[in-house]
Amino acid sequence: MSFVTHLECGRCGKQFEPGKVYNLCDCGSPLLARYDLGQAARTLSRDRMARRPANLWRYREVLPVARESSIVSLGEGFTPLIHAERLGEKLGLPNLHLKDESANPTGSFKARGLAVAVSMARELGIRKLAMPSAGNAGGALAAYAARAGMEAAVFMPDGTPLANRLECSLLGARVETVAGSIKDCGRVMRERLGANGDDGWFDVSTLREPYRLEGKKTMAYELVEQLEGAVPDAIVYPTGGGTGLIGMWKAFAEMEELGWIGARRPRMFAVQSAGCAPVVRAFANRAERAEEWENPETVASGLRVPSAVGDFLILRALRESRGAALAVEDVTMLDAVRELAEMEGLVTSPEGGATLAALKRLVADGFLAGYETVVLLLTGSGYKYVEVLQILARSQ
Ligand SMILES: Cc1ncc(COP(=O)(O)O)c(C=O)c1O
User: Ligand 1 pocket: which of 106, 110, 377 to mutate (most atoms <8 Å of CB)?
Assistant: First the structure.
């Protein structure tokens, strides 16, 4: 079913055999799954796609799961791509599209990554999965682990939206709240569980295992299918650990090798909060790595990521694509959440709002001329951010 040939370190290029349990490379960098795309192309053609189910497993040749019986699915993927006509007209962008990731199981794009990671864990015989999470990833892990009959442990910062914490408990995960950011959660998790140590907990933190990225990359395959073979001109992505951005960039290269698209690529734009913008700072400084952000603070819990193990891969994709990294203030993000609700009927999360806030800056700063096909990644549902909805209701 899968055409994985090996895993490859995103930094030093060291290669690893497929079908084994891995976290990071010995050099401390993320591993990327590589495929025999020539073989995959024999069955994975765009023409054949129409007959396949509308979920991310339609791209099974370029996913790492070898046995169909390993798949743990709740119907993730193939989310709507909505033509935002009213908003587009207002902004002078007639080809503005919204990828509504709230339509995924558990209400966010995190379902894509965790569906694939939990399926691979099942295939590799892993039974206990642990992660630090800003909220949505924890909910998705808890759901897929429940469905697979596995144990899950989630370590969340104390400011995580209540709904995220409650859903994890309801889904049977062990939940621990930690004072600080997701980075502190990771540290506490490794102390408490000795992740990958004697007691058998496997660390599924962002980019510390290779397969969440593979699930997230399917967003790019879907965009090309939904745009009938066209590659968007620009993608605006709210960036924490950056898995989706790195994954999509990888997917465009794969699609070229599969013969789905040519050499043209979208410009990739990363958005962060002004209260936690390590990638934006590193991009502006032309640095290869991002320094840790002190005292990260933002209402967009998914963007409260002070340092990312895949920072150099994010920065590489931004530069190779002639994109950019932008920081937006929380108030602007929330105004944009309201605007998306009022103009397009979508209740999106603050991270989704950040993409619209950034888009306005891109238009104002002349990055976009108006004719381009632009996609905003609305990564999660706003319904879990009741605290944010209350702020918005009070300011009405
Ligand atoms: C709704 C939402 N958007 C964006 C992000 C950032 O995703 P990534 O860490 O893959 O960059 C998160 C992460 O928690 C999130 O929950």
Answer: 110
| Distance (Å) from CA 380 to ligand 1 centroid | 8
User: Can you give the residue range of the structural domain that contains 226?
Assistant: 81-105+211-394
Q: Is 139 in the pocket of ligand 1 (CB under 6 A)?
A: no
- Average pLDDT of the segment spanning 77-85: 98
Q: According to DSSP H, which parts of the chain are helical?
A: 37-43, 85-91, 110-123, 136-148, 162-170, 182-193, 212-226, 243-258, 278-284, 311-320, 330-344, 350-364, 386-394
Q: Tell me how crowded residue 332 is: count the other CB atoms within 10 A of its CB.
A: 18
Tell me, in angstroms, the distance from the centre of ligand 1 to residue 42's CA.
34
Pick from 104, 106, 136, 204 the residue to mutate for probing ligand 1's pocket: most ligand atoms within 8 Å of its CB: 136
The reply to whether 194 falls in a domain is no
CA–CA distance, 333 with 382 (Å, rounded to integer): 12
Residue 20 Cα to ligand 1 middle (Å): 27
% of the chain beyond a pLDDT of 90: 93
Q: What per-residue confidence (pLDDT) applies to 395? A: 86
Q: Does residue 8 belong to any structural domain of this protein?
A: no
Segment holding 35, helix H or strand E: strand 31-35
Q: State the pLDDT at residue 348.
A: 98
- Report how far residue 100's alpha carbon sits from residue 376's, in angstroms, rounded to the nearest whole number: 9
d(CA 121, CA 223): 27
The CATH number assigned to the domain holding 276 equals: 3.40.50.1100
* Partners of residue 15 on adjacent β-strands: 8
Measured by CA distance, the residue closest to atom 15 of ligand 1 is: 302
Q: How many helices (H) and strands (E) does the chain have?
A: 13, 13
CB 178 within 8 A of CB 158: yes
Tell the residue number behind the tokens 């920081």, with chain if given.
327
Pair of tokens at residue 368: 């976009």
Query: 3-7, 50-54, 266-270, 291-295: which range is least confident on average?
Result: 50-54
Tally the domains of the chain: 1
**Residue 110 domain-assigned (yes or no):** no
How many Cα neighbours within 13 Å face the side chain of 215? Answer: 31
* 8 A C-beta contact, residue 185 and residue 132: yes
d(CA 242, CA 121): 22
